[in-house]
Sequence to fold (450 residues):
Amino acid sequence: MKLQLQIKMNEDLFLRNPEHTELGRNIIKHSIQLIAQYGFEAFTFKKLAEDIGTTEAGIYRYFENKHLLLIYIIAWYWSWLEYQISFQTNNVTDPVVKLKKVIKLLATTVVDDATTSYVNESLLHQIIISEGSKAYLTKQVGEDNKHQFFKPYKDLCAVIGNIILECSPKYKYPRSLATTIIEMAHFQNFFMINLPSLTDFGKNKAESEIILFLNDLVFSSIKKG
Amino acid sequence: MKLQLQIKMNEDLFLRNPEHTELGRNIIKHSIQLIAQYGFEAFTFKKLAEDIGTTEAGIYRYFENKHLLLIYIIAWYWSWLEYQISFQTNNVTDPVVKLKKVIKLLATTVVDDATTSYVNESLLHQIIISEGSKAYLTKQVGEDNKHQFFKPYKDLCAVIGNIILECSPKYKYPRSLATTIIEMAHFQNFFMINLPSLTDFGKNKAESEIILFLNDLVFSSIKKG
DNA sequence: TTTAAAAGATAGTAATGCTATCATAAATAA
DNA sequence: TTATTTATGATAGCATTACTATCTTTTAAA
Fold:
């Protein structure tokens, strides 16, 4: 049985739907590779076009600019991750077990998912860590938000917030704790690799330790009164 | 009694020390204003030069590029904040009281400090919130780190980590918790203003609630076992 | 098989991110 | 005080980036 996972993306993100054409799928695939390789600042549509073997103008027919392309692939990731979470926590009744699974999913380097042929989730996870917050840390955040570009991130945050409430119905800050888990799963990873003295994981550089830290943080917060 | 607070900056950050000349101090002053106004991406040396009334080439005599200028002003802020913390927690013996003061200092919008004539700390605080992580979320982070550009941030993290250990000597993740407090003090603020559904502070939009959240997070983590 | 949609090829333009040079003003040392 | 270093101003230029426009050819759906 071979399944293709399809994620419905916000139409305002693109001029032409990249999923519908070979070139479009190549834009997604190669932009993930190039952003992971060069970083978002040094990534240009010209390099992307050369990498694909098309022209700059060709890319502009799909995406207005590189910022919207970044938001696209990041939004795709959050949607994909929400699906992963709902899949992996399906039939799990204990919310504590659910929350632990969520933390593990957030903090673990993803393996490439074969049901999405042109997206390399592993590279995408690296992009989320290094470039993820650049999607919203801009002056246009308000405009972008009006277009609902951050809905997948918000939905994920709501899902996690609800699991937190299942664990501890009286906990006062489920959403802020959810964003804290999400952001810290990535920031601690970035720091561990690049600025290890900002963390307590410099010696082993193991994701498992980030998971232990996050579990400790989350469950001591929500378990008490 | 009039005091001038002087912060010793890393010499590798600039070509010519901006503190030593009128133009240099203008570069710092106006870059803080313009980055706060336009955001870092839209900020250019040309706009800065026009704003000051000098030429682009003039700016380049002080800073190699805008990324190093950003690191400069952010590093300045962390150094200034570490000084504020050491000043405000001086003579405080109870580490819990100290840590609460630190959280408050991190999460509260700064008022302009008159002892630093050409730096507007209030605007700088806004820049830290929106642009702070862009200083290190780059492909050059390793190179920049070799030059010790992030030392002020690391020092602050160490100071806070030590206060955490004073509170709870057996706590396992003092540095990661310190970076979590620092980053979340700013991210929750950004979210509260720009993407409020990612937080639990959307209704009142009050910094005091972020402080309550962080206090709850931190003290439940370190108080047990 | 026509015809519309997508892609390729090429050009061009304003802004960005620099570097270089030469003249002048201001500060400092001889 | 003069000499000379140091900082600034003024101007030019250049490669890259971030687009927009147009025209032709290929591909694919009606």
Remarks:
- The radius of gyration of chain B is 18 Å.
- Residues 16, 21, 23, 54-55, 57-58, 61 of chain B lie near DNA strand D (CB under 10 Å from a C1').
- Chain B touches chain A through 50 residues (CB under 8 Å).
